[in-house]
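cron nightly-structures :: item 1 of 1
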Amino acid sequence: MNELRKYTWIAWTSARSSWAYFGDAIGRVIFFSIILYIFLRLWTTTFTQTGATHLGGLSITQMLWYLTITEAIMLSGPKVSTLIDEDVRTGTIAVQLLRPMSYAYYRLAMTLGERTIRFLVNLVTGCAIAFLLVGQLPMVGFGMLTLCATLPLAFILDFLGLFLVGLSAFWLEDTSGLLLLYSRGVLIAGGTLIPLDLYPSAVRPILSWLPFANITAGPAHVFVSPLPQDLAMILCRQITGTLVLGAIAFVIYKQALRRVFVNGG
């Protein structure tokens, strides 16, 4: 219980710190608004030019709200891997390991606290833009409930992926390339810009079980189409992905700690 209280306090402190930098928050809101507006107008033009009423099973209203959620999730992520990379290269991680807490759980708590605030700011901004463009989404209340059910695991999945990228600094001279590949995986294979239902049927089942899709596309899908069976499937995939990535991260983390002890004494 004391351990849980400790990491909860770290998350709360991180969330409060995010509110302190008002200028940064305004800058992120402006950037998010511009990006979201561009993509919303792009899909509006796509629907108009094709004359379709539904694409990938989504109406234009659902599509624009879908993009609102995926972009809000995508742009709310803190620079976890960069911070871990810096800790490794500067040797700060050795000092962190002396603290009476797990370095991995510390980074997770910091990330969840900061990301929650960023996402809420993005969500409010995105909902305002989407409402002005296409109006209210049907069943938005139930959609919010299903979104809240899937977001924690989505954030944890993304953290595990970025945590592994950051830990690669123990073996790689530069992790920026790996981070670029990971971010593009979330962007493309994760269905951030294009719903997975618009991908070829041959690759759709594979993409749906990858962690990328359950970070952005999964929560967005159950938000715009809150069906109980879809929610159960997304949660199942998220839990499976969390267990698999968690196990991989645990093994890699243990190997990384051995390098710290061998090189640092």
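cron nightly-structures :: done
The mean pLDDT is 86.
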